[in-house]
Predict the structure.
Amino acid sequence: MLKTLSKCIREYKLASILSPLFVTIEVILECIIPFIIAELINVIDTTVPGEIDMGQVWMYGGILVVMAIASLASGALAGAFCARASAGFAKNVRKDMFYNIQTFSFENIDKYSTPSLVTRMTTDVWNLQMAYMMIVRIAVRCPVMIVFAAVMAFVMGGNLAWIFLAVIPVLAIALGIIMWKALPLFKKLFPKYDDMNESVQENIKGIRVVKSYVREEHEKEKFARTSGALCKEFTKAERLLAWNNPIMQFCFYGVICAVLYIGSYFIMTTAGGVDPVTTGEVSQLIVYGMQILSSLMMFSMVFAMIVMSMESARRICEILNEKSTLSNPAQPLYDVPDGSVDFDHVSFKYAANAEKNVLEDINLHIRSGETIGIIGGTGSSKTSLVNLISRLYDVTEGTVRVGGHDVREYDLETLRNQVAVVLQKNVLFSGTIKENLRWGNKEATDEQLVEACKLAQADDFIQSFPDKYDTYIEQGGTNVSGGQKQRLCIARALLKNPKILILDDSTSAVDTHTDALIRKAFRDYIPSTTKIIIAQRISSVEDADRIIVLESGKINGIGTHEELLKNNKIYSEVYYSQVKGSDASAAEGGAEHAEN
């Protein structure tokens, strides 16, 4: 875990080194200052009244001023470098997490929920940043201060200094017990953050549905449950960590009382052969004692933060160490010859331990430039089938070939540039229409943008906007309709100039006339591109070269519209329910009436 996180320090190594260095200088100066103060007190205390050596007083006073200024400057520099190091470390952690997530396959992403990833990128990184800040500065300051203060206390206070050492085992045992008890509680805590973020995300994403069904109170209650569960777990953990403070305070004041009592006794008399102690030495010992015990108290704060951040660090490292299940071969292919697709005894399931396959023994050959329609009921694995073509998932058994080569032999970027997919859930990003379209081809000219939009039947409505192609699209495309969003996504895919174009139910929000115009444009202007159209409407696929009927992950039938209408029961039932439903019902009703 430490090895993984240490890689995120990178350009902030210097700041991470300078901060402890200046902290050490600050601590040394703070430890010497009480010694100078003690010497000054002894000069005044041992001098005959009226005969104070002002030269020594001014000398010690000047030394104290210089040392105080140097200590202040060291502390300020330590704080500045610490802030830079911790903020930079957190920036690199977020950056590395985000970059690694971009490499994830769909299988990797399925392991983590969106709320969990958000929590890890925000709350967990913040916890880690605070812990790093404390480690770089306070965790360095505390042991250095304890060591230097203890050395000075033994030098100046002799046997009295043993009082401070006596309390350390008590504190060590107490902190060890707290850490042992607290870690399991924090392990349970962070999944509660995920649940809360999930509740918020789901509510915001579905706010229109919530308001349409007047379910605000239900959502409030659901959020109250998740936030209440988080509060309950956090309270348990914090209640345990809260024992740090009273234990430290008890030890702190107990030691001060002991030093004052025994020190006063030593000042007034010689006890057990012990040399008398001066007032300056006792006052100095008290200062060193306060430095030692305050450092221990600060260390307990660091300890609490580290305990909290350990689970955060584990969750972050889980993301940083996650490797994509998809990778390029040793010698990948960088050219896709054509748009032909072959499924050779392909079976697929989403998880290795799944009981049954999602796709079962698929055998299919699609010629380059062919238009293929895919139809089937909900859950028939239509999307799963086409996801294998662009290698969003790898097959469990068999082989998928594109252009005559196994998709696992291609460079991933090359393959996906030649297989354009318009998914079921259309996503537009905040930015202008031009910026969204250029996701397909960042080098595309304005003329190419217009041409692609004309093919996708999007140019007309874009021209109706005041800013036309410079119209700003809100996040998620909320300021355009569902059909407009689908047409923009199709245009974006066309700009890739792909050899294979997959439309995954991506014209469902478009009227049938516009749908027909889009398909006609495909036939006329991109005849060499292999087109695979998944649809619920028969009208969207009836003019395809071949239509595939899927049922429960298996091919139920393949053929033209006319062939399937005659020979495939599933296809004919869907067709008549959509196109001839009313006429068929009327005919059946007339026949029954005639029989009666």
About this structure: The chain has two domains: 7-187+239-320, 341-590. Residues 151 and 161 are 9 Å apart (CA to CA). The radius of gyration is 37 Å.
